[in-house]
Amino acid sequence: MIHEFYEREKPVPPEDYVRVDHVLLKNYVTSIFEKLGVRRWEAEIVADVLVTADLFGISSHGVQRTRRYVDGIKTENIDIYSEPKIIVDRGAIAIIDACNGLGQPVSVKAMELAIEKARNYGVSLVLVRNSNHFGIAGYYSLKAVEKGYIGVTMTNSVNLVAYTHTIDRIIGTNPIAIGVPKREPPPILFDAATSVVPVGKIEIYSKQGKEIPPGWAIDSNGNVLYGNASYVLKMIKAKKAALLPLGGLGEKHGGHKGSGLSFIIDIVSGVLSGAAWGVHVGYTVGEKPSNVGHAFMAIDISAFMSIEEFYNRLQQYIDEIKSARKHSKADRIWIPGEKAWYTMMTRKKIGIPLHKNVYNELINIGIDVGVELELKTL
Amino acid sequence: MIHEFYEREKPVPPEDYVRVDHVLLKNYVTSIFEKLGVRRWEAEIVADVLVTADLFGISSHGVQRTRRYVDGIKTENIDIYSEPKIIVDRGAIAIIDACNGLGQPVSVKAMELAIEKARNYGVSLVLVRNSNHFGIAGYYSLKAVEKGYIGVTMTNSVNLVAYTHTIDRIIGTNPIAIGVPKREPPPILFDAATSVVPVGKIEIYSKQGKEIPPGWAIDSNGNVLYGNASYVLKMIKAKKAALLPLGGLGEKHGGHKGSGLSFIIDIVSGVLSGAAWGVHVGYTVGEKPSNVGHAFMAIDISAFMSIEEFYNRLQQYIDEIKSARKHSKADRIWIPGEKAWYTMMTRKKIGIPLHKNVYNELINIGIDVGVELELKTL
Predict the structure, then answer these.
(1) Which of A127, B41, B97, B129 is the most buried (most CB within 10 A)?
(2) Predicted TM-score of the model (pTM)
(3) pLDDT tens digits, residue range B70-115?
(4) What is the pLDDT of residues B104-139, one digit of tens each?
(5) Are B143 and B272 contained in the same domain?
(6) Do A166 and A258 share a domain, yes or no?
């Protein structure tokens, strides 16, 4: 029954894409960062977060972002030699100063600390300041899930979204990811930007030559911007357009809810952590450290009820949703995280599809920094 | 500068509405519940939650709901004689069994416990099972804010929403309310149903003879339902229509995000607390106890940084949002909770507008249960 969903992969045009084994890809990207001077264990985490995004089908956050981190390191806008410091540690909470190091390793450490604290107190909240872009938020929530905990990950991010009733890019797409363990995989993983779509989706549409529907972005006069994705992307990058918050323009369909949620996530991740917020969050490659802020929570299910009872109750809920009457235009009713999981299962077997531009860029980076591995295609 | 926003009240047609002093209204509603046998302190809390909703301009959740609770008590579907029990109490977490009592008093107690735990551990999570409808979620988050804490309140609720790609009412409007203290009022209060709109908004539109725009509801064939609000409301009540999650129908504008968030809120409030979930959550007046589940979190700001530093940083962020370029169609850029707060300031001065139907219903309930106070109009 499950197997039919494993083969979720849509065919990719062979003239544009190659496929690469995920283990090789991870080793290759690890090697790139190691050659740049990143400590081995940190390079492995960065590569794992990137390749996991590709396995999940979120190619916008996958190895295509290698260039961005490489440039951040080369320009020394990221400090790969620093060590994170725990600067507040009280009961169930902590603040870690990432000291402008890479966002991924400190985030794994922060979630591990959150799990340890949740084991002692039932729930925890660990904040991180002075960090950098950490990739997909869901990666860290899944670290909690692997240990049987509910994991919550939030982060602020570079300003791309128009807060409701404003017209400029003043808040981030500030995502929240919540992972919940189940008896059998896939675990539940809700991972969502608080904008209608992340900018990565517009990048992908742009690469595919697709049209943006009305309702995702506005231009700097406040008019809904749609159509040619490359044009929309160019306008956003030039700060002549902004993404819309979840719920869309104005308040009619709840845009103030997406906008408000983004603001709240920034208050916890940015204001309370001691990091930057809103327009002050920097880009990985820039003239100042990004000073991104993250938040990690863990909840110990077994403090509330036996894990078996929780699994039974959750499975019943899922079965009830799955057996509901389906909309005629939908292929299937999805539980958060399922699509990504089944895509991962498929891609682990048949390889990760990389756009040739991305593949060639990786090869060039590899040559540039002296990677010895060959990135063979399947 | 602030005063101009105090007078937010739109004029109400005097042939349809009366105005009542909020203190008198609270005393009157308290008396109704006391006459029904509810303990004085609990009756006061129920009345305060209802009247606060009216003060905030959320009349859908205001004293117009008195009838619903009265009927729940009279039919003994709510047990006003029970006492809540703390059944799990470990470190920073707890579960309270409301024993089918009123939702409001146990929720105040639960948030107080969450605050006490956050004082000791920095963060906390208190869940409530076997509860009833608790009114506006924001009320409890503000209890944390009054003490200088960030407060988070979530609840599940009766099934009114179509989970993405389903067409029936299978999940609740499951709101989340997050309150954040500021140096000067109003505090930040984000309080949002995870549906595009709460059903109360459709009730209000129905009373006002207004039209529902496309995008709020679907009929039981999965078609977008709009137009005459009374008809839409009738269809929802007859289970021939459902509200749409925040983000709307399908996934194009992020409906799976609203739907997923609602599901996650139910997992914490309902599944993990030991309460009902999804279609099992009962209505206040029904054939079985509602078994609503709630979740309350408190975060001790002073565990992370000095409260003064937090206030300074937050105020700067707010000032930056407020000074952004405004959309030409918007009257003003709002911070979550401001509208409600300014409406409250106005209504405390000039009284709460009650639709005559609501006013007459209260009078009739008062006569019925033997309230001695006179509900004088202004």
Answers:
(1) A127
(2) 0.97
(3) 999 999 999 999 999 999 999 999 999 999 999 999 999 999 999 9
(4) 999 999 999 999 999 999 999 999 999 999 999 999
(5) yes
(6) yes
In three state form, how does the secondary structure of chain A look?
CCHHHHCCCCCCCCCCEEEECHHHHHHHHHHHHHHCCCCHHHHHHHHHHHHHHHHCCCHHHCHHHHHHHHHHHHCCCCCCCCCCEEEEEECCEEEEECCCCCHHHHHHHHHHHHHHHHHHHCEEEEEEEEECCCCCCHHHHHHHHHCCEEEEEEECCCCCECCCCECCCCECCCCEEEEECCCCCCCEEEEECCECCCHHHHHHHHHCCCEEEEEEEEECCCCEEEEEHHHHHHHHHCCCEEECECCCCCCCCCHHHHHHHHHHHHHHHHHCCCCCCHHHCCCCCCCCCCCEEEEEEEEEHHHHCCHHHHHHHHHHHHHHHHCCCECCCCCCCCCCCHHHHHHHHHHHHHCEEEEHHHHHHHHHHHHHHCCCCCCCCC
Residue A146 and residue A278 in one domain: yes
Find the DSSP H helices in B2-39: 3-6, 22-35
Q: Does B95 contact A at CB distance below 8 Å? A: yes
Contact between B333 and A278 using a beta-carbon 8 Å cutoff = no
Tokens of B236: 């929802």
Q: Is the same domain home to A139 and A232?
A: no
The answer for residues whose C-beta is within 8 angstroms of residue A71's C-beta and 6 or more apart is A284, A285
Contact B192 A260 (CB under 8 A): yes
DSSP string of B111-141? HHHHHHHHHHHSEEEEEEEEE---S-THHHH
Tell whether A247 is within 8 A of chain B (Cβ): yes
Which of B224, B252, B314, B321 to mutate to probe the A interface, most A CBs <10 Å? B321
Q: Quick check: B271 and A304 CB within 8 A?
A: no
Confidence of residue A7 (pLDDT cuts 50, 70, 90): low
ipTM associated with this complex: 0.96
State how far the Cα of A360 lies from the Cα of B183, in Å rounded to an integer: 54
DSSP reduced 3-state for B315: helix
Is the same domain home to B88 and B154? Answer: yes
What range defines the domain where residue B351 resides? 1-74+333-378
A118 plus A265 within the same structural domain: yes
How many domains does chain B contain in total? Answer: 3
Q: Is residue A143 part of a domain?
A: yes
Q: Which two tokens mark B152?
A: 């988070």
How does strand A93-97 pair with strand A123-131?
A: parallel
